[in-house]
Amino acid sequence: DQQVKQNSPSLSVQEGRISILNCDYTNSMFDYFLWYKKYPAEGPTFLISISSIKDKNEDGRFTVFLNKSAKHLSLHIVPSQPGDSAVYFCAASRGNGNKLVFGAGTILRVKS
Amino acid sequence: DAGITQSPRHKVTETGTPVTLRCHQTENHRYMYWYRQDPGHGLRLIHYSYGVKDTDKGEVSDGYSVSRSKTEDFLLTLESATSSQTSVYFCAISVNYNNEQFFGPGTRLTVL
Question: Residue A53 belongs to a domain with what CATH number?
Protein backbone atom coordinates (compact mmCIF):
# COMPACT_ATOMS: atom_id res chain seq x y z
CA ASP A 1 0.00 0.00 0.00
CA GLN A 2 1.67 3.17 -1.21
CA GLN A 3 1.36 5.91 1.39
CA VAL A 4 2.63 8.58 -1.01
CA LYS A 5 1.28 8.61 -4.54
CA GLN A 6 2.22 10.56 -7.62
CA ASN A 7 -0.47 9.60 -10.07
CA SER A 8 0.97 11.30 -13.14
CA PRO A 9 3.97 9.36 -14.48
CA SER A 10 4.87 12.20 -16.82
CA LEU A 11 4.13 15.83 -17.63
CA SER A 12 5.08 17.92 -20.65
CA VAL A 13 5.12 21.73 -20.47
CA GLN A 14 6.17 24.55 -22.77
CA GLU A 15 9.10 26.68 -21.68
CA GLY A 16 7.94 29.77 -19.78
CA ARG A 17 4.65 28.23 -18.69
CA ILE A 18 3.75 26.85 -15.27
CA SER A 19 4.49 23.25 -14.31
CA ILE A 20 2.25 21.73 -11.64
CA LEU A 21 3.26 18.41 -10.11
CA ASN A 22 0.87 16.69 -7.76
CA CYS A 23 1.23 14.31 -4.83
CA ASP A 24 -1.32 12.60 -2.58
CA TYR A 25 -0.72 10.87 0.73
CA THR A 26 -2.79 8.58 2.90
CA ASN A 27 -1.08 8.71 6.29
CA SER A 28 -2.46 11.62 8.33
CA MET A 29 0.50 11.32 10.71
CA PHE A 30 2.89 12.74 8.12
CA ASP A 31 3.99 16.19 9.22
CA TYR A 32 6.81 17.11 6.86
CA PHE A 33 6.85 17.01 3.08
CA LEU A 34 9.66 17.42 0.60
CA TRP A 35 10.26 17.57 -3.14
CA TYR A 36 13.37 16.19 -4.78
CA LYS A 37 14.58 16.52 -8.35
CA LYS A 38 16.61 13.82 -10.05
CA TYR A 39 18.62 13.90 -13.25
CA PRO A 40 19.69 10.65 -14.96
CA ALA A 41 22.73 8.95 -13.42
CA GLU A 42 22.73 11.33 -10.45
CA GLY A 43 21.38 11.20 -6.92
CA PRO A 44 18.18 13.06 -6.01
CA THR A 45 18.70 16.68 -4.99
CA PHE A 46 16.58 18.44 -2.40
CA LEU A 47 14.34 21.13 -3.86
CA ILE A 48 11.88 22.48 -1.33
CA SER A 49 9.97 21.38 1.76
CA ILE A 50 6.95 22.29 3.84
CA SER A 51 5.87 21.60 7.38
CA SER A 52 2.30 20.54 8.13
CA ILE A 53 1.77 23.77 10.09
CA LYS A 54 2.02 25.74 6.85
CA ASP A 55 0.02 25.66 3.65
CA LYS A 56 2.53 27.31 1.34
CA ASN A 57 6.27 27.65 1.00
CA GLU A 58 8.03 29.56 -1.74
CA ASP A 59 11.62 29.55 -2.94
CA GLY A 60 12.31 31.47 -6.11
CA ARG A 61 10.52 29.80 -9.02
CA PHE A 62 9.36 26.92 -6.83
CA THR A 63 6.29 26.95 -4.60
CA VAL A 64 4.86 24.03 -2.67
CA PHE A 65 1.23 24.05 -1.55
CA LEU A 66 -0.17 21.74 1.14
CA ASN A 67 -3.85 20.92 1.56
CA LYS A 68 -4.05 18.83 4.73
CA SER A 69 -7.78 18.19 4.56
CA ALA A 70 -7.38 16.69 1.09
CA LYS A 71 -4.02 15.07 1.94
CA HIS A 72 -2.63 16.66 -1.18
CA LEU A 73 0.42 18.70 -2.04
CA SER A 74 1.59 20.25 -5.24
CA LEU A 75 4.78 21.78 -6.60
CA HIS A 76 4.49 24.79 -8.91
CA ILE A 77 7.40 25.82 -11.10
CA VAL A 78 7.04 29.25 -12.70
CA PRO A 79 8.37 29.93 -15.26
CA SER A 80 9.43 26.48 -16.39
CA GLN A 81 12.84 26.16 -18.01
CA PRO A 82 14.35 23.36 -20.12
CA GLY A 83 16.84 22.67 -17.30
CA ASP A 84 13.89 21.75 -15.09
CA SER A 85 13.39 18.59 -17.15
CA ALA A 86 13.97 15.78 -14.65
CA VAL A 87 12.16 13.27 -12.45
CA TYR A 88 10.45 14.86 -9.45
CA PHE A 89 9.84 12.87 -6.29
CA CYS A 90 7.47 13.80 -3.52
CA ALA A 91 8.42 12.53 -0.04
CA ALA A 92 6.88 12.60 3.43
CA SER A 93 7.93 11.89 6.98
CA ARG A 94 6.48 11.95 10.46
CA GLY A 95 7.92 12.93 13.79
CA ASN A 96 11.64 13.08 14.23
CA GLY A 97 12.34 9.67 12.79
CA ASN A 98 13.86 11.12 9.63
CA LYS A 99 12.51 8.20 7.60
CA LEU A 100 11.24 9.43 4.27
CA VAL A 101 8.49 7.74 2.27
CA PHE A 102 8.72 8.54 -1.43
CA GLY A 103 6.25 8.61 -4.26
CA ALA A 104 7.01 6.86 -7.55
CA GLY A 105 8.05 10.07 -9.29
CA THR A 106 6.84 12.23 -12.18
CA ILE A 107 8.94 12.84 -15.28
CA LEU A 108 8.77 16.51 -16.25
CA ARG A 109 9.71 17.55 -19.78
CA VAL A 110 9.99 21.25 -20.52
CA LYS A 111 9.95 21.93 -24.24
CA SER A 112 11.76 24.93 -25.68
CA ASP B 1 27.74 19.37 -1.64
CA ALA B 2 27.30 17.15 1.43
CA GLY B 3 30.50 15.22 0.74
CA ILE B 4 28.94 11.82 0.06
CA THR B 5 30.66 9.21 -2.07
CA GLN B 6 29.51 5.72 -2.96
CA SER B 7 31.60 2.81 -4.15
CA PRO B 8 31.53 1.04 -6.45
CA ARG B 9 29.46 3.14 -8.85
CA HIS B 10 28.63 0.13 -11.02
CA LYS B 11 28.74 -3.57 -10.27
CA VAL B 12 27.67 -6.72 -12.07
CA THR B 13 27.56 -9.89 -10.03
CA GLU B 14 26.06 -13.35 -10.11
CA THR B 15 23.19 -14.78 -8.12
CA GLY B 16 24.29 -16.16 -4.78
CA THR B 17 27.42 -14.07 -4.38
CA PRO B 18 27.91 -11.63 -1.50
CA VAL B 19 28.08 -7.93 -2.33
CA THR B 20 29.05 -4.96 -0.18
CA LEU B 21 28.33 -1.36 -1.10
CA ARG B 22 30.08 1.48 0.68
CA CYS B 23 28.85 4.95 1.55
CA HIS B 24 31.36 7.48 2.82
CA GLN B 25 30.69 10.97 4.18
CA THR B 26 33.17 13.66 5.11
CA GLU B 27 31.00 15.79 7.43
CA ASN B 28 30.42 13.52 10.47
CA HIS B 29 26.65 13.64 10.21
CA ARG B 30 24.80 11.37 12.59
CA TYR B 31 22.07 9.94 10.35
CA MET B 32 22.78 7.81 7.29
CA TYR B 33 20.39 5.88 5.06
CA TRP B 34 20.34 3.30 2.30
CA TYR B 35 17.60 3.40 -0.35
CA ARG B 36 16.92 1.47 -3.51
CA GLN B 37 15.28 3.00 -6.55
CA ASP B 38 13.11 0.91 -8.85
CA PRO B 39 10.71 1.92 -11.63
CA GLY B 40 7.19 2.46 -10.31
CA HIS B 41 8.35 2.49 -6.69
CA GLY B 42 10.38 5.64 -6.28
CA LEU B 43 12.95 5.29 -3.53
CA ARG B 44 12.41 2.81 -0.72
CA LEU B 45 14.29 2.78 2.56
CA ILE B 46 16.35 -0.35 3.21
CA HIS B 47 18.17 0.42 6.46
CA TYR B 48 19.23 3.49 8.33
CA SER B 49 21.68 4.45 11.07
CA TYR B 50 21.44 7.04 13.81
CA GLY B 51 24.97 6.62 15.09
CA VAL B 52 27.95 4.31 15.24
CA LYS B 53 26.72 0.75 15.76
CA ASP B 54 23.11 2.01 15.89
CA THR B 55 21.07 0.80 12.94
CA ASP B 56 17.47 -0.10 12.20
CA LYS B 57 15.39 -1.64 9.46
CA GLY B 58 13.50 0.25 6.82
CA GLU B 59 10.67 -0.68 4.51
CA VAL B 60 12.49 -3.28 2.38
CA SER B 61 15.21 -4.73 4.63
CA ASP B 62 14.85 -8.46 3.82
CA GLY B 63 18.03 -9.82 2.23
CA TYR B 64 20.14 -6.84 3.34
CA SER B 65 22.33 -6.10 6.34
CA VAL B 66 24.24 -2.97 7.31
CA SER B 67 27.12 -1.98 9.51
CA ARG B 68 28.45 1.30 10.80
CA SER B 69 31.68 0.99 12.75
CA LYS B 70 32.81 4.56 12.02
CA THR B 71 30.77 7.76 11.75
CA GLU B 72 31.87 8.33 8.18
CA ASP B 73 31.15 4.89 6.70
CA PHE B 74 27.87 3.03 6.25
CA LEU B 75 28.09 -0.37 4.55
CA LEU B 76 25.24 -2.23 2.87
CA THR B 77 25.70 -5.99 2.39
CA LEU B 78 23.72 -8.40 0.26
CA GLU B 79 24.66 -11.73 1.84
CA SER B 80 23.54 -13.75 -1.18
CA ALA B 81 22.51 -11.56 -4.09
CA THR B 82 19.33 -12.35 -6.01
CA SER B 83 18.06 -10.99 -9.33
CA SER B 84 15.33 -9.09 -7.47
CA GLN B 85 18.08 -6.99 -5.88
CA THR B 86 19.09 -5.57 -9.25
CA SER B 87 18.53 -1.88 -8.64
CA VAL B 88 20.11 1.51 -8.16
CA TYR B 89 21.20 2.03 -4.57
CA PHE B 90 21.45 5.46 -2.99
CA CYS B 91 23.03 6.47 0.26
CA ALA B 92 21.80 9.59 2.03
CA ILE B 93 22.67 11.64 5.08
CA SER B 94 20.62 13.91 7.28
CA VAL B 95 22.26 17.21 8.12
CA ASN B 96 19.71 18.93 10.33
CA TYR B 97 16.59 18.50 12.40
CA ASN B 98 14.04 19.17 9.70
CA ASN B 99 14.55 15.93 7.82
CA GLU B 100 16.20 17.16 4.65
CA GLN B 101 18.31 14.34 3.33
CA PHE B 102 21.16 14.67 0.88
CA PHE B 103 21.96 11.87 -1.48
CA GLY B 104 25.05 10.31 -2.92
CA PRO B 105 25.51 9.64 -6.66
CA GLY B 106 24.22 6.06 -6.50
CA THR B 107 25.46 2.55 -7.26
CA ARG B 108 23.95 0.61 -10.14
CA LEU B 109 23.93 -3.09 -9.21
CA THR B 110 23.06 -5.83 -11.67
CA VAL B 111 22.59 -9.38 -10.40
CA LEU B 112 22.66 -11.96 -13.20
Answer: 2.60.40.10
